[in-house]
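Before relying on records like the one below, remember that each one covers exactly one chain. Contacts with other chains, cofactors or solvent are not represented anywhere in the record.
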Amino acid sequence: MYPGQSVKDLIESLNVPHVEVDLILINGVSVDFSFQPAPGDYISVYPVFESLNIENVTRLRPLPLRVPAFALDVHLGKLARYLRLLGFRAAYRKNWDDAELVAYGVANSLIVLTRDRGLLKRKLLKRGMFVFSTDPEEQLREICRRLDLYSMVNPYTRCLSCGGKLRDLVYGSGEFLSVQERIPPGVLSWCREYSLCTVCGKLFWKGSHIKHLDRIIRTIQDECLL
């Protein structure tokens, strides 16, 4: 600890990004990031609270994370698709650099998810989380656990490609007939349920991949019951 060092700088010197901290207690008293601790002070640092009510103490975030929406770095493309599968807004671009990702996340009040701790230390960033796992399915479980997202899971309501909202396409309607040529004949012969992305216009139906997606959803729903 250095004279005049803020508690924020002290925390980040221990490789804990400030965006993952929601409460700091100095000798049992809540303080903000600018507080300068003294030698011998007892410092307690807590992550974002989603299940406990701490409204009567000094929260370091201006608002809680509800309703959570995300921006993901270039290494988390599959996690972005899985979050969309569960119904969460998840912005992702393959060519985002760090500055663009942070700027987009801040401008749109998104939680930035990344495997780069250095990115989370940028002063501009308000919301962010380091993703520990390297496995996409475990990453999804990790985010759901840490932010207690279980009650907000709403599967098959977002486009896996762009994240836009999906709406049902009525079989046989004029709109259906206008996009029918985009459906493979083999699928058209048996499938009667389709969804359309309201942003990119992509068509969705429950094909052979649905068992894999259903398994991922069940895994998250089962964890909610534990």
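The chain has eight helices and ten strands.
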